[in-house]
């Protein structure tokens, strides 16, 4: 493999969404000034509905007040897209990556992230797929991974949510990603097994390293975006 820009991985465990959002902002500022190299954060969140930049109030199937009473947080994420659910059993990966230094546009960045997810799923015998109209990864028409990014001064923030073994019924409180009729799935549902988040994060980290390598373009499936 040819040399590539360095990338570090950091596991945060179970942390509130708002806390990690603040941490992302700190890291992005440091990446913009060159104080740190690219970094991917792996984290698990307590139950939270996050809003993207696109209006989505109509996508709440349960009123916000009732969600909060039931123990959900509702937070603004500052990323693209609409509503997304995060919760225990879901692996979230946030990308603090300099697209400027890597000379990537956003479509190329998304292609490589999707490619890493697809390869990770393949390790568990899952044939994931892209859909032309929506970023993310799907399995037989069911969504298993969501992508929502933001880029400022050439550096990304936010990232992906990969369903390992979350409560799938929690997704029914919203219209996920604003996609009518979207059915969510998970590694447990597809394989009847529940790998740990630590195991999946290790495998995903290796696939991200490979997908982000300078010589990886030939390995990345063509984008449908």
User: Which second-level CATH architecture applies?
Assistant: 2-Layer Sandwich
Q: Helix- and strand-based class?
A: alpha+beta
- The largest sheet has its strands arranged as 1-2-6-10-9-8-7
Main sheet attributes: strand count, strand direction, barrel closure: 7 strands, mixed
Oligomer: single chain
Overall mean pLDDT stands at 89
* SSE pattern, N- to C-terminal: EHEEHEEEHHEEEEHH
Give Rg in angstroms: 16 Å
- Count of discrete alpha- or pi-helical segments spanning 4 or more residues: 6
- Fill in the CATH topology: BirA Bifunctional Protein, domain 2
CATH superfamily: Bira Bifunctional Protein, Domain 2
Number of strands: 10
The CA-CA distance between the termini, in Å, is 27 Å
Q: Name the shape in a single word.
A: globular
Structurally, the number of domains stands at 1
State the low-pLDDT regions, or none: 218-225
> Percent of residues in beta strands?
25-35%
Q: Give the class-level CATH name.
A: Alpha Beta
Helix content: 25-40%
Question: In words, what does this structure look like?
Answer:
The protein is α+β, with helices and mostly antiparallel strands. The chain has one domain (7-219): 2-Layer Sandwich (BirA Bifunctional Protein, domain 2), CATH 3.30.930. Helices cover 28% and strands 28% of the residues. It is built from six helices and ten strands. It has helices at 17-32, 64-69, 99-102, 106-122, 187-191, 197-212; strands spanning 7-14, 38-44, 48-51, 73-76, 84-86, 90-96, 129-131, 134-139, 142-152, 155-163. A seven-stranded mixed beta sheet has the order 1-2-6-10-9-8-7, sandwiched between helices. A three-stranded mixed beta sheet has the order 4-3-5. Strand 8 and strand 9 form a beta hairpin. Helix 4 (106-122) packs across helix 6 (197-212). The longest helix has 17 residues, at 106-122. Mean pLDDT is 89; it is low at 218-225.
């Amino acid at each position: 493999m040819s040399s590539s820009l360095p990338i570090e991985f950091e596991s945060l465990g179970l942390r509130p969404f708002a806390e990690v959002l603040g941490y992302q902002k700190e890291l992005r500022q440091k990446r913009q000034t060159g104080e740190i190299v690219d970094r991917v954060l792996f984290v698990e969140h307590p139950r939270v509905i996050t809003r993207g930049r696109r209006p989505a109030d109509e996508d709440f199937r349960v009123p916000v007040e009732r969600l909060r009473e039931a123990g959900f947080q509702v937070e603004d994420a500052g990323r693209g897209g609409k509503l997304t659910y995060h919760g225990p059993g879901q692996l979230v990966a946030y990308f603090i990556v300099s697209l400027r230094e890597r000379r990537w546009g956003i479509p190329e960045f998304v292609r490589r992230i999707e490619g890493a997810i697809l390869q990770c799923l393949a390790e568990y015998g899952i044939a994931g797929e892209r859909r032309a109209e929506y970023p993310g990864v799907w399995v037989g028409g069911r969504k298993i991974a969501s992508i929502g990014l933001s880029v400022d001064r050439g550096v990304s923030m936010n990232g992906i949510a990969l369903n390992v073994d979350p409560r799938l019924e929690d997704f029914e409180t919203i219209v996920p990603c604003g996609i009518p009729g979207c059915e969510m799935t998970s590694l447990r549902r597809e394989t009847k097994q529940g790998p740990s988040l630590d195991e999946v994060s290790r495998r995903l980290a290796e696939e991200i390293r490979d997908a982000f390598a300078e010589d990886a373009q030939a390995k990345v499936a063509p984008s449908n975006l």
